[in-house]
Design a protein that fits this description.
The complex is a heterodimer.
Chain A: H1 11-16, E1 21-28, H2 34-42, E2 46-50, E3 57-64, E4 69-74, H3 86-95, E5 107-113, H4 117-128, E6 134-139, H5 141-146, E7 149-151, H6 153-159, E8 164-167, H7 176-184, H8 199-210, H9 218-227, H10 233-239, H11 244-256, H12 261-280, E9 281-283, H13 290-299, H14 301-345, H15 349-366, H16 369-385, H17 387-401, H18 409-414, H19 419-424, H20 432-441, H21 450-461, E10 466-467, E11 470-471, H22 472-497, E12 508-511, H23 519-553, H24 566-576, H25 578-590, H26 597-605, H27 612-620, H28 629-638, H29 650-662, H30 667-677, H31 681-704
Parallel strand pairs in A: 1-4, 1-5, 5-6, 6-8
Antiparallel strand pairs in A: 2-3, 3-4, 7-9, 10-11
Chain B: H1 2-21, E1 35-41, H2 46-53, E2 61-67, E3 74-78, E4 81-85, H3 87-90, E5 93-97
Antiparallel strand pairs in B: 1-2, 1-5, 2-3, 3-4
Classes of the chains: A alpha/beta, B alpha+beta.
Chain lengths: 705, 102
């Protein structure tokens, strides 16, 4: 029954089986190479879940051993045990065993970048006070060597209370076996002695803990002393006894005096780290590689910024152009499949549901995958190579001027192709306010789904006149792009001044050395992203697609004139369907914009996915939904009001274009905003806000022009 | 209450003045390639404390490695690792700067 350890059995079942179980938390700084190491240790034996109530992903993996079931939890990166962000709070809660649904770790694997012992040892030293078995993995051991660092591992282990230190190169697998062997029995080992970097603090914590109602860990009491009785520390304070509050205050006064406790902690602990480094680390002249040379060039302001624009152009081009053939293929396949189903089952509700509802719905989800995969391939490559941090650093000033931060650059650029991957990419923004401002600004960028609508309307109604040496049609298209950018900037500024007003977030960005991304890590991350999109966003998009199908299909017309041809019959059916009725019903609201009921129905049908509007216009004007553009635009030009005046006048068309530039007609975007903000509030706000702006813009254009 | 606030404002301002007064050099005024040792930190601001947790504390040796266009944000080397700060944040750290080589 050894095989049983490899399948996913609920944790509680494992504990009664013969195999003993242990849980090890993988803790480390944000650029410590933690995820690469985690992937190397667990390979495909990992799964992604969520912590209760938040969007932070929970990465679990199992370590394969002969007689044990060891679960590794890859925690969000943290510099220390005081949380400064949401993700750090989660890491710390898991470390202390306070996270609901996650069992307290039996042992800790601390991941430290060998080239950055300074920050790494700060964390390790705090972890020592946790009094749990601890192993340190020194990652990027090869990079430390080439950068001229000599580290005395024996002496370092001695200074860290005799814990085991395993140098590894996660990208090549060097040292991984030794680390795995160290992890297998880690949970049974003795906890190391605290580091005693600040003996007075440890002594105070020990005295307080002596009277506690339950056994408390030194690190827990230290956090109460330093961070005060906020959040989860309240519980620890309660355990310390009824009058612990005044005791703690007394110790705080004694230990810190007027100094901010956190500042004093940083001073004391880093002083200790420096004393350790002086003993164990020797800095030799570095070996200059092409990477250090490249970094030196990209460090300079002008070459760095030019380099950034080249990288951005490549990403933009890739997402825009490389994805198109695959997307066309998916579109074609879903259309072909739909036609085949109609061929099999004949004309009926079931075949229409399968062809126009289910298949078209699935197609509308899958069609986003190529762009998402390509964009995320680039983002993961940029992030893992260390370039993303540099891009954020270079663009920080410009983005700050428009109410965003440097980290917003990638999401904003990607949104020109599609807001869905763009919004998913906002995860790189640590500050919540910056992140939500970026999410709200992103859908204003002109995405590829707006292009068919723009192309149709501009080609049909904007005269192809030359203005100077520019073409008026091109100029209008450019104007729509600029309009989207300005509307996005306006939104970001507005939201930062009102709902998301708050102190400017501290901007401290670690700029790691360039390093080669690991294929396995990139592939695993990409797979995870694609899955998340298909499961979470896909279900919403799919349901909405089926609903719109039903609205257009029901009720069936009973008295369609048999002399009508197929196309006219489809138009007549649409006119008396719920969708057509809805179009007629809301038409008074859209009349000030110059839209007749046909345009209104098409716009309503386009709310789940804006590109649908072209197909619906095709049906409603009885040219068939696969109408070629020339015929459709000819029909649009000849559309008239009952009094004989033309529907599609230039002001009306400009208004319609502005409406499309603003309006959030995309179920996928809404679903992704819901997923990324973990509430329906933001997608609802974005929808109302953008629709209002679109409506007002179209109204002004029609009434004033 | 108001007196206490004024007192704190006063301490903050004088604290800053004292910081600037050592030799007027902060992290923000380092030249590219210039090294210095952090001499004092204006730690009253929680955001500065956050930077101290990253290792920007008294006694740490820092080098200005570069800056984005317009000189902001700036990139420093701290024990061999790159860290980027905005100018307004860098001003909270006074340094005793080494002479610029060459």
């Amino acid at each position: 029954m050894i095989k049983a350890t490899e399948t996913r059995i609920p944790l509680k079942d494992i504990s009664v089986s013969r195999q003993p179980k242990a849980s090890i938390a993988v803790v480390g700084g944000p650029n410590s190479g933690k995820s690469t190491l985690f992937n190397r240790l667990t390979g495909l034996r990992q799964r992604i879940g969520n912590y209760p109530g938040v969007t932070v992903e929970k990465h679990l993996g199992t370590l394969k051993t002969d007689d044990r079931f060891i679960e590794l939890v890859d925690l969000p990166g943290t510099h220390g045990l005081t949380a400064h962000s949401f993700e750090e709070q989660i890491a710390i809660d898991v470390i202390f065993g306070r996270m609901e649904g996650t069992q307290p770790p039996d042992a800790i694997l601390a991941v430290v970048d060998a080239t950055n012992l300074y920050q790494g040892l700060y964390l390790v030293q705090q972890l020592l006070d946790l009094q749990r078995p601890l192993v340190v993995a020194l990652t990027m051991w090869d990079a430390a060597k080439t950068s001229g660092l000599k580290i005395d591992l024996g002496l370092l282990a001695e200074r860290l209370g005799g814990i085991k230190i395993c140098p590894v190169v996660a990208t090549t697998g060097q040292g991984i076996n030794e680390l795995r062997n160290a992890l297998v029995n880690l949970a049974d080992e003795e906890a190391p002695l605290p580091a005693m970097a600040w003996p007075e603090l440890a002594a105070a914590a020990a005295e307080l803990a002596a009277n506690a109602s339950i056994p408390l860990r030194l690190a827990e009491v230290e956090r109460v002393l330093i961070d005060g009785a906020a959040g989860a520390n309240v519980f620890v304070l309660q355990c310390l006894g009824p009058d612990a509050g005044s005791e703690v205050e007394k110790y705080r006064e004694q230990l810190f005096g007027p100094e901010p406790p956190l500042a004093l902690e940083a001073r004391r602990r880093y002083a200790w780290v420096r004393s350790v480094l002086d003993e164990v680390q020797v800095k030799m002249p570095p070996f200059y590689s092409w990477r250090t040379r490249l970094a030196a060039i990209l460090n300079q302001p002008v070459p760095g910024t030019i380099g950034l624009f080249v990288v951005m152009a490549i990403v933009f081009q890739a997402v825009f152009a490389w994805a198109t053939p695959v997307m066309d293929l998916i579109d074609g396949a879903s259309a072909g499949l739909g036609a085949a189903v109609v061929g099999w089952l004949g004309d009926g509700a079931l075949s229409s549901l399968i062809a126009d509802g289910v298949i078209a719905g699935v197609g509308s989800v899958v069609v986003f995958l190529p762009q998402i995969v390509i964009l995320f391939l680039f983002i993961i490559l940029l992030e893992d190579s260390g370039y993303l941090a540099r891009a954020a650093y270079l663009m920080d000033r410009a983005m700050r001027a428009v109410g965003l931060s440097g980290q917003s650059i990638i999401p904003m650029i990607s949104s020109f192709a599609c807001a869905v991957p763009g919004i998913m990419a906002t995860r790189v923004i640590p500050n919540r306010r910056d992140r939500i401002a970026t999410i709200l600004a992103a859908p204003f960028m002109t995405c590829s789904a707006r292009l068919p609508v723009y192309a149709l309307l501009i080609a049909a109604f904007v005269p192809a006149r030359d203005v100077g040496f520019l073409n008026l049609q091109g100029l209008v298209l450019l104007g729509l792009y600029m309009f989207g950018i300005l509307a996005g900037i306006f939104t970001a500024l507005l939201i930062r001044k009102t709902a998301l007003r708050g102190p400017k977030p501290p901007f401290a960005l670690m700029l790691p050395e360039f390093r080669r991304p690991n294929v396995q890590t990139v592939a695993l991350q990409l797979l995870g992203r694609a899955k998340v999109f298909l499961y979470r966003a896909g279900t919403v998009i799919f349901s909405v697609a089926v609903i719109v199908w039903a609205l257009a299909y029901y009720p069936r017309a009973s008295d369609i004139d048999p002399v009508l041809d197929q196309r006219q019959a489809a138009a007549a059916q649409l006119e008396q369907s719920w969708l057509g009725r809805a179009g007629k019903f809301v038409q008074p609201a859209f009349e000030p914009l110059g839209w007749d009921w046909r345009v209104s129905s098409a716009v309503i049908a386009g709310f789940p996915a804006r590109e649908v509007v072209v197909a619906v216009l095709g049906t409603v004007y009885a040219v068939g939904d696969d109408a070629d553009e020339a015929r459709l635009s000819a029909r649009l030009k000849s559309a008239v009001w009952p009094d004989g005046s033309r529907v599609f006048t230039l002001p009306m068309v400009l208004g319609l274009l502005i409406f499309y530039a603003c309006c959030l007609q995309c179920a996928a975007t809404l679903a992704v905003i819901r997923r990324e903000t973990n509430t329906w509030r933001w997608p609802a706000f974005a929808w109302v806000y953008m629709t209002t702006i679109g409506y007002v813009g179209a109204l002004l254009a029609y009434q004033l022009l | 209450m108001r007196i206490i606030i004024i007192y704190h404002k006063f301490r903050e301002t004088t604290g800053n003045l004292v910081l600037m007064g050592i030799n007027g050099t902060t992290l923000a005024s380092l030249k590219r390639g210039q090294k210095g040792t952090i001499a004092a930190v204006n730690a009253a601001d929680p955001q500065v404390q956050r930077l101290m947790v990253l290792g920007l504390v008294e006694g740490a040796e820092v080098e200005l490695a570069g800056a984005a266009i317009g000189g902001d944000p700036m990139e420093f080397r701290l024990f061999g690792t790159g860290i980027s700060l905005r100018q307004e944040q860098a001003r909270h750290f006074s340094v005793s700067a080494d002479e610029l080589g060459d």
